[in-house]
Specification:
By secondary structure, this protein is an alpha/beta fold. The protein contains 16 helices and twelve strands.
């Protein structure tokens, strides 16, 4: 059985962004998962039934540690001789593609799912551009997971079009629509959870799921929501996710509002977000940049319309006026207008909600994405013969 090596920077990407995928692939390959945080990685490997190998990787720019990781990974790949190395996330990409190239791995694949460089400028942007180009140069195939990313890569001249392709309809992993299904939760379940969180039963509840950081548009969201709630006390906001004060901190006034506002609720990181989607009315996701966000697909599969920014992935999952609203990024006034519109126009809300689940199940069912990726792996291995 041929070897497939999958690499992400941190194990949570394996657990969440690629959930179940490596377990599926082990029926066809000997699979090895590589990432940082050894204990979490080993727990993931045990759960999925795949081998693991830990590397010291971080999302920060750490050249010396990264060079050491390349050498360690190179030695591993020379010994293991995999047929495919497939990386996901930027740091895993540059480390994995460099090591795989030097180790002579025939199929070096990199998935692009969002680019930090889109929000960078000056010297940092030049460094990140160089790293991106180098990653693609060492790769044999590059898979942007949205049409927007594909177009951006071509416009920036990061690599030639012949190296690029989009798997399936653009998602890295699709959505298990049987798992994310609103019928799993009864009315009593929903009432009970709202009561537990002290969210009024009659309130129109917006939900955000993800890291509570500047890059996700949280400063704008809190400002817009707080302004609207001054004149409409029948709306609430539920924030599901961790703060990251070291990497991308929120403004002090944003943190203060989150802490003190009576209609803003936080529950931290949750391994299962479905109960929280089940009690919400709509997702609000004002991120600055994404690849192909799982959260927007998950919300849609749970029957929620979404307010998203006009960025990669979001503007492909959401069709304006069909299953959600689309606004410019970093635009607090547009965000205010959209959350007001959705919570005060029942007919608009009902129409968007009616389309939300079907627009996910018809395009992003997880098994379809896995089958498309398996077909791509088999196509590449067929070329090697």
């Amino acid at each position: 059985m041929k070897k497939l090596v999958r690499i992400t920077t941190v194990p949570i990407s394996l657990e969440k962004l690629l959930e179940g995928q490596l377990g599926f692939m082990k029926a066809y390959f000997e699979v090895v998962a590589i990432s940082a945080e050894k204990e979490k990685l080993e727990a993931y490997g045990k759960k999925e039934g795949v081998r693991v190998f830990s590397l010291e990787l971080t999302r920060k720019i750490t050249p010396i540690k990264d060079i050491a990781a390349v050498f360690k990974l190179y030695r591993f790949l020379k010994k293991e001789k995999p047929s495919i190395v497939h990386t996901h996330t930027p740091k895993a990409g540059i480390v994995g593609m460099t090591a795989a190239w030097f180790a002579g791995v025939p199929n070096r694949l990199h998935t692009v799912a969002g680019m930090p460089l889109m929000e960078a400028s000056g010297f940092k942007r030049k460094v990140l551009n160089f790293v991106e180009k180098l990653t693609y140069r060492f790769a044999t195939e590059v898979y942007p997971n949205s049409k927007g990313l594909y177009d951006f890569i071509i416009a920036e001249n990061f690599t030639k079009a012949s190296k690029l392709s989009i798997i399936g309809n653009g998602s890295s992993n699709g959505i298990d629509t049987k798992y994310f299904d609103p019928v799993s939760y009864s009315e009593n379940d929903k009432i009970s959870l709202r009561d537990k969180l002290k969210i009024p039963q009659g309130h129109f509840l917006y939900i955000f799921v993800g890291r509570l950081v500047k890059d996700k548009g949280i400063n704008e969201l809190i400002t817009a929501f707080s302004k609207l709630s001054d004149s409409n006390n029948t709306i609430s906001l539920l924030l599901v996710g961790p703060f990251e004060n070291d990497l991308d901190p929120l403004l002090p006034e944003t943190l203060s509002t989150i802490e003190k506002h009576p209609n803003i609720y936080t529950v931290g990181y949750q391994s299962d977000v479905r109960p929280y989607f089940s009690i919400a009315d709509a997702l609000v996701f004002p991120s600055y940049r994404e690849g192909f966000p799982n959260v927007v697909m998950q919300a849609g599969a749970m029957g929620l319309p979404s307010i998203v920014t006009d960025i990669n992935g979001c503007n492909e999952i959401i069709a304006y006026g069909k299953n959600g609203l689309i606004i410019p990024p970093k635009d607090t006034q547009a965000l205010y207008n959209s959350i007001k519109q959705l919570s005060t126009q029942p007919s608009l809300f009902a129409n968007l909600k009616a389309n939300s689940r079907e627009m996910i199940t018809s395009r992003y069912e997880r098994q379809q994405v896995w089958d498309a990726l398996l077909f791509e792996y088999q196509r590449l291995l067929g070329k090697d013969k």
